[in-house]
Amino acid sequence: MQSYEQSLQQTRKFLLEHDDYLVVSHIQPDGDAVSSTLAVGWLLSCLGKKYTMLNEGPIPQRMEYLWHAGEIANLAEGDLPREYSRVICVDCADFQRVGLTQRHFASDALIVNIDHHPTNNGYGSVNLIKPDAAATAEILFDLLKTFEVEWDIDIATALYTGLLTDTGGFRYSNTSPKVMAAVSELLELGVNGPMLAETLLEEMTLGQVKVLNRALSTLQLSPEGDIAWVSITPQDMLDCEAANEDLEGIVNYPRNIRGVEVGILFKVIHERAVKASFRSAGKVDVAALAQVFGGGGHTRAAGARIDATLEDAIPMVLQEVRRHL
Amino acid sequence: MQSYEQSLQQTRKFLLEHDDYLVVSHIQPDGDAVSSTLAVGWLLSCLGKKYTMLNEGPIPQRMEYLWHAGEIANLAEGDLPREYSRVICVDCADFQRVGLTQRHFASDALIVNIDHHPTNNGYGSVNLIKPDAAATAEILFDLLKTFEVEWDIDIATALYTGLLTDTGGFRYSNTSPKVMAAVSELLELGVNGPMLAETLLEEMTLGQVKVLNRALSTLQLSPEGDIAWVSITPQDMLDCEAANEDLEGIVNYPRNIRGVEVGILFKVIHERAVKASFRSAGKVDVAALAQVFGGGGHTRAAGARIDATLEDAIPMVLQEVRRHL
Fold first, then answer.
1. Three-state helix/strand/coil letters over B149-169
2. Do B180 and A181 lie within an 8 Å CB cutoff?
3. ipTM of the shown complex
4. Per-residue pLDDT reduced to its tens digit, A120-151
5. What is the distance in angstroms between the Cα of B17 and the nearest Cα belonging to chain A?
6. Closest Cα of chain A to B250: distance in Å?
7. How many other C-beta atoms can be found within 10 angstroms of the C-beta atom of residue B154?
8. Which chain B residue's Cα is nearest to A249?
9. Which residue intervals of chain B bear CATH 3.90.1640.10?
10. What fold does the segment set A4-202 form as a domain?
11. pLDDT tens digits for range B144-183
C-alpha cells in the first residue's frame, strides 16, 4: 500500500502528463462533490489542460455562486458528443456512484479516484484516498499544494464550500485541526465565510419552514423529559408543498431540547407504514435501537421503517427507546 | 498610543509582579465573558498566584462543563468578605459593565482592562484592547502565549468556547484567518468541538421550541416573496412558558427563507405597543429602516418599538420596508 504522499505525487504526474480529461462526481451532487469537481477543473485550467465537467443531475441552485459552476454539464439535459479516455472521479465511494456519467468513459479509460470515504474500494487506475479527510476538498487542498499555481479567491471559495458543508458548518467530529488550519488559509485569500454559511447552511425553502412548523405542532415529550418526538403525515407534505429533502434537520429539534436523550421524527409513508428517524444526544446507541426494527445507521443518527399505523408505531418505538435508556 | 504588543507585555508584567487578584467580567455574562474570566484564572493558577473570580449574575447553566466554572462567585448570592486592590476586568466595554462587582474594588485599585469592543474607552490602569479581535478570548490566546505555561485541554476548551460563541459558530464576519488558526491549535489540544457546538449553539429549552412553533404558525410573506414576518403575543409567551431570551434567533427563520430580503419578528409588548426586530439578507440597511421608527441597530440586525396595535403596526412597517427595498 503506497503512502498518501506517494498517491499525491502519482496523481500530480497523471494530471501533468495527459490532457483532455472528464471530471465527474456522484449522483445528486452535494457541496463537497460540486466543490471538488470545480477544484479539479480550476487546477486543469491553470495547467492549460482541456477538460469537461459532468454530473448526473443538476448542481444545487444554492451553489451557483461557485467559479464556473454553470459549466458542469448535466447529463439529464442530454449526452455529451463523445467518450473520454482520461477520467477523474471525485467524492465517489464506489464506481456505481458516478451514475450514468460512465456512458462517457472509454472502455479502456484511465481513472483517477479521489475520495475520502473509508469504504472506497480503490476502483481507479490511480487512487488518491484519505479516509480521515473531512471532505474530498481537503484532499484537493493537499493536491493543489503540490503544483506551482497561484491560488485565488475562486479556488479558495470552492475548497471552503466543500469543507464547510461536509463538516456541517465545522460542527461534526471530522472537523480536525487540519481542516481549521486549511480554512484559515482560505479565509486569508478572501473567502466570504459568512455569506457561504448563510447560503449553504441557513437558507431554507418556504416548504421547509412550513413543514418544520407542522412537525413542531406535534411535539411530545416523555414524562421524564428524555424522549421527544414529532410526526409528519403525507397530508402535511401536500399542504406545505414540501419535498422529502425539506424534512432534513427536523429531527434535530426534538433532540436539541435540553434534557432529551433521544429525538424522533415519525414520517408516515402510508396508512400502515412509518419511517422513524432517531437522533441521540450521546447516551443511547440509536443504531442498535434501529436494528430492533430492522433498520440501521450510526450510533447517534439512525432510522427504521415500521409497518404499522402511526398510532401503533409510536408506543412500540417509545417502549423500545425506554429499554435502551 | 502603545502597540498591541506593548500592551501584551505590560499586562504580562502586571500579572507577574502582583498577587491576590480579583477577576471580573460583565453583568449577564455570555460565553466569551465566562471563558475569559476562567482563562485568566487558569493562567493565574499556573503562575501560583492568589485570585478570586466574581460576576454579578450566575454563569449560564450550559457552560458548567468549563474548568472551575463553579468557582466564579455570584454576587447575587452574597458579598465577598473584602476589597481587592488588583482587579482584572475582561470583556467589559466600559467600567459600568462590571456591575455591582465594583463594590469589591479598593478605591485605589489598579485595574487591567482586557477587551475587544471597539467602543472600549480605556478605563484601566493597563489597557489591553484589540478592537479587531473576534472575542476577548482571542486576546487571551495571545496573552497566554507570552508566558511559559503548558497549555492543556482545560484552557483550550475555555478559549474555544469564547471564540465559538462570539463568532456565532464561526459564521459571523469576525471569523478571521487568525481565529481559525487559533481554533486549529486548540483542537490539537483535544477540544471536543462537536460537543461544544451542541451544548452552546444547538441546545434549546422546551419554551424556545414551543414559542418558535407559535411564531412560525403566524408566518406571512409579501406577494413578491421578499419580506417575511412572524409575530408573538404576550399570551403566546404565557402559553409556552417562554422567557424573553427564548425569542432569540426566531427572526432568522423568516429572514432565512430563500428570496427574502427582510425578515421581521413583531413582539406585542401590550395592546398598543409592538417591538419589531429586523434582519436583512444584505440589500436593505435595516438600521436606517429602524431609525424611521425611532429605533436603531446594525445594517443587518436592528429593532424599533412602535406604539400601535399589532394590526396597525404590521402594515405601517411593511410599507416602510417596501420603500427601502
1. CCCCHHHHHHHHHHHHHHCCC
2. yes
3. 0.90
4. 999 999 999 999 999 999 999 999 999 999 99
5. 35
6. 12
7. 17
8. B202
9. 4-202
10. inorganic pyrophosphatase (n-terminal core) (3.90.1640)
11. 999 999 999 999 999 999 999 999 999 999 999 999 999 9
Q: Which residue of A has its CA nearest to B217?
A: A213
Query: For B130, phi and psi rounded to 5 degrees?
Result: -135, 95
Within chain A, all domains assigned CATH 3.10.310.30 are found at: 207-324
pLDDT of residue B248: 87
Confidence (pLDDT) at B186: 98
Q: List all residues 6 or more positions away from B244 whose beta carbon is below 8 Å from its beta carbon.
A: none
Partner residue facing B203 (CB), from A176, A198, A256 = A256
- Parallel, antiparallel, or unpaired for β B105-115 and B126-129? parallel
| pLDDT for residue B323 | 96
pLDDT at A312: 97
Q: Give the best residue of B61, B183, B221, B299 to mutate against chain A (max A CB count within 10 A).
A: B183
Picking from B160, B204, B232, B250 by the largest number of A CB atoms within 10 A of its own CB, the best residue to mutate is: B204
Give the per-residue pLDDT at B198.
Answer: 92
Task: State the CATH architecture for B206-324.
Answer: Roll (3.10)
C-alpha cell at A215: 412537525
DSSP conformation class of B316 = H
Looking at chain B, the domain(s) classified CATH 3.10.310.30 span 206-324
CB contacts of B221 in chain A (<8 Å) are 206
With a cut of 50, which residues of chain B have pLDDT below it? Answer: none
The pLDDT, as a whole number, for residue B61 is 86
Contacts of B160 (CB under 8 A, 6+ apart): B137, B183, B186, B187, B191, B193, B196
- For residue B256, give the nearest of A173, A180, A202 by CB distance: A202
Hey, what CATH topology would domain A207-324 get? Answer: Diaminopimelate Epimerase; Chain A, domain 1 (3.10.310)
Mutation site, A138, A165, A170, interface B, largest B CB count within 10 A: A170
Q: What parts of chain A have a pLDDT lower than 50?
A: none
pLDDT tens figures, A143-174: 999 999 999 999 999 999 999 999 999 999 99
Q: How far apart are CA B113 and CA B89, in angstroms?
A: 5
